[in-house]
């Protein structure tokens, strides 16, 4: 046996040989020794104590060698959980497969050094006698810097194995990179969940006709991009646990509702567990994980007093970090505070206790992190994880981890199994496509757009595209599924640049094409990113009898959108000198009569509205195109197309009727004399973190989450001004909303400012650019100087028979809120007493910035959350000081507006519950009675976790004892009916009303 070890490192300007012993064996002789000798596939036998390869290693090696001999061109992915012997599997695959020149890509310097050291002496392969003395050690090269000279590449190629991180290749010259990658016969990628990085993809393009093996414990990414390749071997996490390669996990929870208390509780628990383990003879360490350097410094203060445990803080800014890392490896420090882990590939079996001050929010990172602590060792105890379960925001898949008494061993194996199952199902989907290529791994997110054709099945010949492509463009990736109803391909064309007459300069254009033939309805859906004239030749080639759906039927796609708001309308008119006109804003409404009278033909229409309770958009062109302002995955595109096709084939839909029901809009010169029932912040603010936005002036300030807008019922008599009030728990400030010579103007009488982080501006200026939304009683609304109203006047009377009557005996119906004092005679107190038997949590949310006066939640076995909003209003007293129910319109306006305003909370349950938690924390901070009248804060946190996995249903109820059902007027019923219509069109929720007799 030749025991000489040879390694070379490529530096910035030269190659440095670092032989351990002098060797006369060339890299060719090394390969010859591998070829003529036999690799011993010895498997361990725990019952007899025989050493050898572990079952996951044996399985992975055989799967890899089998794939090596196959004709598959896809990358092969091997899934092995942390601790199952991945590195030795890589070594065995290279040697047993007799790979001539292998490039091994690793994500970090630490992993590069680690795998280099194992390759130099073939690691455990010799100890386990998998190779004998006749096998020569490989020539190993590691690349640490870029290479610019081909001479260095020539010397580098006199190796058997080359190890590098992907980043170094960005500093290679193009010729050096191409020469190196073309010479390598195999590519092995470690930690393949990083594979989508641009540099890595560039590397892999040189291995399209060579074998590529990817190793990972998590074959999925947190950014949603697929890890390209076919899973050829999967050793499940559950199997690794059963076989003893994955250490048992003990989860220790703490339950604190503030970060300061949470950090203190986690550190105390971690220190206690560490001292207990040390007393039992275990050489364990604690790693305290923080999300940022700032957080790490704060957390370190909680550990630094434990001097006998030698706590250390290490991050990217740490000086002499290499020295500290060596000290950590040598066991000099028992407590390590760091940001994330200590780098990919840093493995230390003694790390057994994880103090998770900040948890990871994605699945793959969490599983990788957990794997660092679960390596098995007979001299070490179980892995221990500590986390706060009271306030943890994680993905739905991980929510089950952070529940009291959760079994991490079962949960993480279930999470891993489900994710890998999803990846396999996606691969099964891909496998239904013949000639499948890299196209599915490009993270395709096509725009929701299509042209539609009627088609006879005999004219559908998708394979014809390839003969057309040879003449007009170059097809790079393509695939046709087994059902022969879908073809996907990408093309590259060269287009002359517009700024020169030179015929030597071209733009390189890449385009995607997706064609789906719905055989059941004989419709062909055609999508492309190419806006050129080539598309009709493609359709004609593939389906020569296809007839494009054009004209009026296309506009049926607009059907079903509630509160449709047209934004652009293009018309063809038969007027002298005017053939085509485009209309926006108030101009749209003026064109509708021409369309209805057929004096104009619809050319293109785009609008936004609500469908199935969700906001959506749709655009239609007379020439046959349908589109939406969205992009999504290929499978979502199929679903969208089927929905559009169903509408277009529906002969009962009148395209002109769609426009009759659309919202119209005009530019205001004066405000309409219609009562305002609610006013809300512009959507630009509602999308932001309302706790991080501050409104105020030199005298006071308040978080946006505690601010609410209200207004007078009607504008001033001249229709030029509306008074808006900004209300906080402590202040009320007036803002005038003015129309001055058709100009919108806001005047804050208290010089209010709005602050986003370090940016501050006057609220007047912000509203001028992003005006609030005023909802009027007839469901029309105002944004700035734009007035949006339904074409058909809403006069929907609320069904009087649906109104329920409550007995208000003993209740002061002139007192609405129970306040913090829990006023027993109030409407709110008595409502809570009536309903709380039907719910698991009842929350008093009354006050500025409320969701509703009462929010009640019923939990159905953690599967469904029934969330009900109750909006209350008092009955005002007459001159005699009596509160008598009747038919007063004013008693309905405000409570109907509150109901309409609350729909903004329905689309984000997590945000809704977070809001309740915040409101309760504020109340408790004042040492006042809890807002929670049934349940407690701990249960509210629990519901927040349930909401991540459960379905939910909403209900909305107006409770107004001032309304008399027997005396109710049509005007009151219209207000309630219009509010119900508005709420139902946007959310699909019905409105309930409770009144007096």
Mind explaining what this structure looks like?
- The chain is of the alpha/beta class and about 1000 residues long.
- It contains 26 helices and 47 strands.
- The termini are far apart.
Task: Spell out the blueprint of helices and strands.
Elements: E1 6-10, E2 15-17, H1 27-36, H2 55-68, E3 76-79, H3 86-96, E4 102-105, H4 109-120, H5 123-127, E5 139-143, H6 150-156, E6 161-164, H7 174-183, E7 186-190, H8 198-204, E8 211-216, E9 230-234, H9 237-242, E10 249-254, H10 259-279, E11 285-290, H11 293-303, E12 312-314, H12 321-329, E13 335-339, E14 351-356, H13 363-371, E15 383-388, H14 408-431, E16 433-434, E17 447-454, H15 465-472, E18 474-481, E19 486-496, E20 506-518, E21 523-528, H16 535-542, E22 547-548, E23 562-575, E24 578-583, H17 587-596, E25 600-611, E26 614-621, E27 625-631, H18 634-648, H19 655-660, E28 663-667, E29 676-680, H20 683-686, E30 693-696, E31 701-703, E32 708-711, E33 721-727, E34 732-740, E35 743-748, E36 753-756, E37 759-762, H21 763-769, E38 773-776, E39 781-783, E40 786-790, E41 804-805, H22 827-835, E42 841-844, E43 854-860, E44 864-872, H23 890-901, H24 909-925, E45 932-934, H25 937-947, E46 951-964, H26 970-987, E47 991-996
Parallel strand pairs: 1-5, 3-8, 3-9, 4-6, 4-7, 5-6, 7-8, 10-15, 11-13, 11-14, 12-13, 14-15, 41-47, 44-46, 46-47
Antiparallel strand pairs: 1-2, 16-18, 17-21, 17-22, 17-27, 18-19, 19-20, 20-21, 23-24, 23-25, 25-26, 26-27, 28-40, 29-38, 30-31, 30-36, 32-33, 33-34, 34-35, 36-37, 38-39, 39-40, 42-43, 42-45, 43-44
Helix pairs in contact: 2-3, 6-7, 23-26, 24-25
């Amino acid at each position: 046996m030749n025991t000489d070890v040879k390694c070379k490192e490529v530096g910035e300007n030269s190659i440095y040989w670092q032989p351990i012993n002098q060797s006369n064996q060339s890299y060719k002789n090394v390969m010859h020794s591998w070829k003529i000798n036999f690799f011993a596939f010895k498997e361990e036998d725990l019952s007899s104590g025989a050493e050898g390869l572990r079952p996951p290693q044996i399985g992975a090696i055989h799967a890899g060698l089998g794939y090596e001999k196959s004709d598959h061109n896809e990358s092969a992915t091997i899934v092995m959980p942390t601790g199952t012997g991945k590195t030795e599997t890589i070594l065995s695959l290279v040697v047993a497969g007799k790979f001539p020149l292998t490039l091994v890509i690793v994500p970090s310097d630490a992993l590069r050094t680690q795998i280099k050291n194992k390759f130099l002496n073939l690691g455990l392969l010799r100890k386990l006698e998998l190779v004998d003395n006749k096998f020569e050690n490989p020539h190993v090269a590691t690349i640490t810097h870029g290479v610019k000279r081909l001479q260095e590449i020539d010397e580098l190629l006199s190796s058997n194995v080359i190890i590098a991180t992907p980043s170094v290749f960005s500093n290679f010259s193009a010729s050096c990179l191409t020469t190196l990658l073309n010479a390598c016969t195999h590519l092995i990628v470690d930690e393949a969940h990083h594979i989508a990085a641009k540099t890595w993809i560039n590397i892999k393009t040189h291995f399209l006709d060579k074998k590529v093996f990817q190793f990972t414990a998590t074959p999925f990414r947190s950014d949603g991009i697929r890890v390209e390749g076919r899973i050829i071997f999967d050793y499940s996490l559950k199997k690794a646990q059963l076989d003893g390669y994955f250490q048992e996990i003990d989860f220790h929870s703490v339950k604190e509702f503030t970060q300061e208390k949470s950090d203190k509780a986690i550190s105390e628990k971690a220190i206690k567990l560490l001292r207990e383990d040390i007393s039992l003879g275990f050489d364990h360490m604690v790693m305290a994980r923080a999300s940022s350097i700032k957080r790490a410094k704060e957390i370190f203060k909680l550990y630094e007093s434990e001097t006998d445990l030698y706590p250390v803080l290490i991050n990217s800014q740490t000086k002499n970090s290499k020295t500290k890392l060596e000290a950590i490896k040598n066991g000099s420090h028992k407590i390590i505070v760091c940001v994330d882990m200590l780098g990919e590939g840093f493995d230390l079996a003694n790390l057994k206790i994880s103090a998770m001050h900040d948890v990871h929010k994605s699945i793959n990172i969490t599983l990788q992190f957990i794997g660092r602590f679960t390596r098995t060792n007979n001299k070490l105890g179980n892995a221990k994880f500590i986390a706060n379960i009271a306030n943890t925001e994680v993905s739905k898949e991980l929510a089950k981890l952070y529940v009291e008494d959760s079994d991490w061993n079962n949960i993480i194996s279930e999470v891993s199994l489900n994710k890998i199952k999803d990846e396999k199902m996606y691969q099964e989907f891909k496998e239904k496509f013949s000639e499948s290529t890299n196209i599915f791994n490009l993270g395709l997110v096509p725009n929701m757009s299509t042209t539609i054709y009627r088609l006879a099945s005999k004219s559908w010949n998708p394979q014809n595209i390839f003969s057309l492509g040879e003449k007009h463009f170059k097809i790079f990736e393509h695939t046709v599924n087994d059902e022969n109803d879908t073809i996907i391909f990408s093309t590259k064309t060269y287009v002359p640049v517009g700024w020169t007459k030179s015929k030597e300069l071209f733009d390189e254009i890449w385009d995607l094409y997706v064609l789906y033939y719905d055989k059941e309805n004989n419709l062909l859906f055609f999508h492309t990113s190419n806006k050129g004239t080539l598309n009709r030749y493609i359709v004609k080639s593939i389906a020569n009898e296809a007839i494009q759906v054009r004209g009026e039927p296309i506009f049926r796609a607009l059907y079903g959108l509630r509160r449709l708001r047209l934004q652009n309308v293009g018309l063809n008119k038969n007027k002298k000198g005017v053939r085509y006109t485009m209309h926006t804003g108030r101009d749209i409404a003026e064109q509708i009569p021409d369309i209805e009278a057929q004096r104009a033909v619809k050319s293109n229409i785009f609008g936004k509205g609500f469908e199935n309770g969700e906001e959506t958009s749709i655009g239609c062109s007379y020439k046959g195109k349908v589109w939406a302002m969205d992009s999504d995955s290929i499978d979502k595109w199929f679903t969208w197309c089927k929905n559009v096709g169903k509408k277009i084939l529906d002969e009962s839909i009148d395209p002109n009727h769609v426009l009759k029901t659309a919202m119209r809009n005009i530019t205001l010169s004066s405000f309409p004399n219609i009562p305002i029932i609610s006013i809300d912040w512009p959507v630009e603010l509602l999308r932001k973190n309302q706790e991080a936005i501050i409104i105020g002036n030199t005298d006071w300030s308040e978080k946006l989450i505690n601010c609410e807008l209200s207004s007078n019922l009607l504008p001033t008599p001249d229709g030029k001004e509306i008074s808006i009030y900004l209300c906080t728990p402590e202040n009320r400030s007036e803002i005038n909303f003015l129309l001055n010579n058709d100009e919108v103007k806001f005047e804050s009488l208290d010089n209010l400012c709005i602050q986003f982080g370090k940016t501050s501006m006057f609220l007047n200026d912000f509203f001028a650019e992003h005006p609030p939304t005023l909802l009027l009683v007839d469901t029309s609304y105002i944004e700035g100087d734009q007035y949006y109203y339904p074409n058909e006047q809403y006069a929907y009377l609320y069904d009087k028979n649906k109104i329920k009557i409550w007995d208000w005996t003993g209740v002061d119906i002139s007192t609405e809120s129970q306040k913090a004092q829990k006023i027993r005679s109030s409407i709110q107190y008595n409502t809570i007493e009536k309903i709380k038997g039907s719910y698991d949590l009842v929350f008093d949310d009354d006050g500025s910035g409320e969701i509703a006066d009462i929010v009640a939640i019923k939990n159905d076995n953690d599967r469904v959350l029934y969330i009900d909003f109750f909006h209350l209003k008092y009955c005002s007293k007459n001159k005699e000081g009596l509160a008598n129910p009747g038919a007063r319109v004013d008693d309905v306006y405000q409570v109907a507006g509150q109901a309409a305003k609350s729909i903004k909370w329905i689309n984000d349950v997590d945000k809704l519950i977070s809001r309740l938690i915040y409101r309760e924390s504020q109340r408790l901070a004042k040492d006042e009675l809890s807002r929670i009248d049934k349940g407690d804060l701990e249960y509210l946190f629990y519901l927040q976790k349930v909401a991540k996995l459960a379905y939910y249903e909403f209900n909305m109820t107006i409770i107004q004892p001032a309304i008399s059902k027997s005396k109710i007027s049509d005007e009151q019923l219209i207000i309630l009916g219009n509010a119900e219509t508005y709420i139902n069109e946007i959310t699909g929720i019905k409105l309930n009303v409770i009144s007096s007799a």
